[in-house]
Amino acid sequence: MRFKAMALATVVAALAAPVQAEVKVGLITTLSGGGAGLGIDTRDGFMLAIEQAGRDDVEVIVEDDQQKPDVAVQIADKMIQSDKVDVLTGIVWSNLAMAVVPSAVGQGLFYLSTNAAPAQLAGPGCNPNYFSVSYQNDNLHEAAGAYATSAGYKTAFILAPNYPAGKDSLTGFKRFFEGDLAGEVYTQLGQTDYAAEIAQIRASGADTVFFFLPGGMGISFLKQYADSGLEIPVVGPAFSFDQGILQAIGAAALGVKNTSSWSKDIDTPANAAFVEAFSARYDRLPSIYAAQGYDTANLLLSAIDKADVNDDAAFGAALMEADFDSVRGKFSFAPNRHPIQDIYVREVVQEGDVFTNKIVGTAMTDRANEYVDQCKM
Amino acid sequence: MSRERAFNLAALALLVAVPAWAQLTGETFTITLATRAVIFALAATGLNIALGLGGLVSLGHAVFFGIGGYAMGILAFHAQSYTPLTDWPVTIPGTKLMPVIWLVAILVSALAALLIGLLALRTTGVYFIMITLAFGQMFYYFAISWPAYGGEDGMAIYVRNGFPGLNTLIPIQFYGLCLAWLLVVLWFNARLARSRFGLALNAARQAPQRVETVGLDPVRLKLVALVISGAVTGLAGALFADLNRFVSPTMFSWQLSGEIMVFVIIGGVGRLFGPVAGACLFVALEHLLGGITAYWHVWLGVLLLFIVLFGRGGLVGIFAGRGAVHD
Amino acid sequence: MSAILIAEQVLNGLQSGVMLFLMAAGLTLIFGVMGLINLAHGSLYMVGAFAAAAVAAATGSFLLALAAALAAAALAGAVVETVVIRRLYDKDHLDQVLATFALILIFSEGTRWIFGSFPLFLDIPPWLSGPVELPGGILYPAYRLALIGVGLAVALGLWLLISRTRLGVRIRAGENDREMIAALGVDISRLYTVVFALGAGLAGLAGALVGAIQSVQVGMGEPVLILAFVVIVIGGIGSIRGALVGALLVGLTDTLGGIFLPELFKLFTDPSSATTIGAALASMSIYVLMAAILVWKPTGLYGARA
Amino acid sequence: MTDPVLSVEGLCKSFGALRATDGVTLDLRPGEIHAIIGPNGAGKSTLIQQICGGLSPDAGRIRFLGADVTALPVRARARMGLARTFQISSLAMEDTVLQNALLGALGAAGRPWGFLRPALRDAGPRTLAEQALERVGLGDVAAVRTAELSHGQRRQLEVAVALTLSPRAFVMDEPMAGLGSAGSQQLTALLAELKADAPVLLVEHDMDAVFALADRISVLVYGQVVMTGTVEEVRADPRVREAYLGDAP
């Protein structure tokens, strides 16, 4: 599948870019299987920005990784060896990113992450050619911990799937939660029934429940939690409250607090324009993945205007400037090339027939990440 | 059977010619694809020993593939982080040497096959299918939730492991290694099928009662077949991990077990070159159809149905006709 | 750990067990009568859940949605049986595995083609939402109690169907001797279609019932399918009674293992690694159970033949 | 009188309420053909299964070559020289006739663990297999696939496989079943020669063959041996006529 940004090269772009080398971008993301919704949003957000820019010096090649690490590696090999791309982007999942990123940046390519940003790549494994435009994986969990503390909760019951991202999430929460833990549970990855955990929560006497259960796991948990009659307030990262899956949870999610680096009601002109353009173009509301894809494309375009992609140092410096209008408002890079940004607290609300999120506060301001000092570039 | 031999020779010629052409024209990615196909062919050839000769319908061969992969991953991980595997009773360091990794992959997957076989071969038929499937899931969940080696995230190995005298980072050289292994195993497989063991195993598949009444133990024959089969598939797993420079629990997934079986069936069960033809066709389809539609699995499913329902003998059968499997 | 918590967890294990039974019963029936191993059974589970979600969205009625799930899955089963499955009865298990694996590919990607990649919404009806108080002060969701009830009712219904009706007589005859039922003048191919559709309908019903408290998405059937395999291997392939016992064993082991293993390890090591190790072992517990039962009885608890 | 090669004492086997074998006692002496006859459902197949080790009896003992083999598995009895042929041919149909015979020779040699050398190049077993095929008259079709053999030829191959085991006793389960009269005459001649190699326990429906071959006959009815005797004794016995030939006046 190939999209070529059609439209005319604008005069502005032509003036701003003294070096007009064609830039090839490889977008690897999940377009089939259970996780396809996330990848489709990433792609659509990214392509929206490219289309809006309307330039013909950027070619984007899109391929489906089927959410399988070995397929992602194979596609990356193809894009590098056969298509000769300059920049890779688009991977949703941390385990796929870990399979592709180290080897790609090792071969001198740029990788811009639209979502996954595991700790390994922020700390000792950081690289001048690797930029996370989304967040550092721990950020939203840390924000949930900070929020739970500021909301005055004293004891928390926390749960996540038993895999590395799940453990990172609980670690992130605990880093900023100052109360006590009433329970800490690792569930099976892909688990669909949470009756046992809910019973433990009921027996634990906690003030609040923090959970990180992405995708279908979160849908199942929230539906079952709502039905259990438990009134303990729940908080989680944005992944389980994404636009794509909120409709599948329905009223069970109403009122739940979640932390996010983006929300469709962030009050900036850039965000309003993005939400409107995305809704008009694709006939649905954008998700955080779409927003991050959109920002990534705009960051890339801003750097292309300033430097030659073949000049690693100059192009890296141009990216570091983050000279683009982020839909998240404030946006800059920490030294380890991960964002410094605000993390918001949102609440799930109903607008007409549609379930969506509304910002109710800011959990962390200008948060960078825990690994800056471990990164030696 | 000369037509089958002609087919085999043609397949061999392609395995040499296509990457050579790709090398000359600079189509490096075609070599990577061919390497993938050859490794899958090796894994499927392993399964074909159990399935084609022994009649063991194992839906858990990804276990061995994954074990081979993790043998590579764990050894290379310790080598690249300069930590020993264990300090007690003696210090065992990691390694980045392919021959050592291969040996470990073969031995460990053979051991796993022995243990699984001891349990699973207590049963036959449909029980055997389901038990191997369940063992696969058991390893899969273990790999996901055991934290020491990356869990669900898997492990990235930054530089491909080395082989004395070669630069394995150059695609065509690594391809050569994989092809050499495939040829060695195919040769072994051809000999095995005609050996005393092959004869007895073949009979154990067709008439287990008969084997027993001549004083042989069909279960023991099948156990040995499963061990050999698992070892070959484990070797393929180690090579696959080196191709991707990455291992993860998906190498244990039951879909992969299904796919390995698909290679064998599309190509032709019990045919020497069946798994090779099947794996090559699968990789080609994945590449070509995957480029046309994101829903290519539907068409793969339809193709598979047609082969099962109407094309007994798979690709090799279609080209070379039915005819004796052994001659 | 309080007695109430333990009682609640036992109920949870029971509930997941009876839902597994709905899946396993169809699988084991189809194997018993036709000798067919059907990997695509999980796809029929998914079909039921999607049909229920679609009908619930259109009509707002949960009961209609359940009926639709049953009907859609049974219909899909009947169609698949007529077009594909009946060509597989004479073939060996290998061909059956491959063909039904192909069906999974077609069903999964086909469903995604039709319904898109996002999970669908399906909720429990208002009249079953919320918890009820049981004797002893246990608060337990009404819907889950209803699931236990439905599962047991289906088990009873199946038993009556097989022991008391003409269809049941034919099914039993089919399990014992295929030539005999042909001699009795029963239209075998129709019997097979009916049995397959019955199994498919049960899977679809399970998909819809469980879908209401879980996520309705592509690929939801395969994890359940593998659990159902474990169930019928434990119970003995072809035995409905075995399926029931096996399903309850697996449901209870899975639920209680996940709770008690981490607690057990907390006696030996620090809480954080105890939860990790406990969870890792809990995810393997049902397979260990299966292996143990097979060492003891290679054809399962109630299995007569391999 | 010499010791029997094979003896069965008080053998019992029930399936639920059905007593398939009910206290059977019989023996097989060197150099004889001992036939077991009886109506359908008399328990002949169950008896054979127990003698060869496929089923374990509820009570009773089986002795072979002086040793108690009641608890031994099929293959252990086979290795001792108990050679069995099946009622329904049980051969590797995709393999050649020679390969099938060779399987027996390999079993007799005890070790099938050769992985690289072609089995056909093992001179010892191959000679043994070829001799056995010659003896049953299948020397010409050694290279033919077993599936292509006629029914009668498959019967002969069953015997050939048994011969490669250097048997100390044959147990034959209805070798004549499904054969035409020409076929049975040919096989009858072959069996008559075989008892020079080792005694034969013969379960057979074909009465012409039984009366032509047997030195002794045991009559099995409802799991019990009604009588054992020579051909003449059996022919003359009214109980046999009643039980077995049924409608006789």
Automatic annotation (TrEMBL), chain A:
Pfam families assigned to the protein according to its UniProt record, in alphabetical order: Peripla_BP_6
Family: Belongs to the leucine-binding protein family.
Domain (Leucine-binding protein) ranges: 22-352
Keywords: Amino-acid transport, Signal, Transport
Residues in the signal sequence: 1-21
GO biological process: amino acid transport
Organism expressing this protein natively: Pseudooceanicola pacificus
Protein name: ABC transporter substrate-binding protein
Superkingdom field: Bacteria
UniProtKB/TrEMBL annotation, chain B:
Gene Ontology MF annotations: branched-chain amino acid transmembrane transporter activity
Keywords: Cell membrane, Membrane, Signal, Transmembrane, Transmembrane helix
Domain of life: Bacteria
Subcellular location: Cell membrane
Membrane association type: Multi-pass membrane protein
Signal peptide annotation: 1-22
Record keyword Signal present: yes
TM spans (from-to): 38-57, 62-80, 100-121, 128-149, 169-188, 223-240, 260-285, 297-320
One cellular component term from this protein's GO annotations in UniProt: plasma membrane
KW Transmembrane helix (keyword) present: yes
Protein name per its UniProtKB record: Branched-chain amino acid ABC transporter permease
Organism: Pseudooceanicola pacificus
From TrEMBL, chain C:
Any coiled-coil regions, as ranges: none
Keywords: Amino-acid transport, Cell membrane, Membrane, Transmembrane, Transmembrane helix, Transport
GO molecular function annotations of the record: transmembrane transporter activity
InterPro entries: ABC_transp_permease, BCAA_transport_permease
Subcellular location: Cell membrane
Membrane topology: Multi-pass membrane protein
This protein's GO CC annotations: plasma membrane
Pfam families, per the entry: BPD_transp_2
Organism superkingdom: Bacteria
Primary localisation category: membrane
Family membership: Belongs to the binding-protein-dependent transport system permease family. LivHM subfamily.
Protein name per the record: Branched-chain amino acid ABC transporter permease
Record lineage: Bacteria, Pseudomonadati, Pseudomonadota, Alphaproteobacteria, Rhodobacterales
TrEMBL record, chain D:
Keyword Nucleotide-binding: yes
GO cellular component assignments: plasma membrane
Pfam family, one: BCA_ABC_TP_C
InterPro entries: AAA+_ATPase (IPR003593), ABC_AA/LPS_Transport (IPR051120), ABC_transporter-like_ATP-bd (IPR003439), BCA_ABC_TP_C (IPR032823), P-loop_NTPase (IPR027417)
Any one GO MF annotation of this record: ATP binding
SUPFAM superfamilies the record matches: P-loop containing nucleoside triphosphate hydrolases
Domain ABC transporter: from-to ranges: 6-247
UniProt keyword terms in alphabetical order: ATP-binding, Nucleotide-binding, Transport
Name of protein: ATP-binding cassette domain-containing protein
Source species of the chain: Pseudooceanicola pacificus
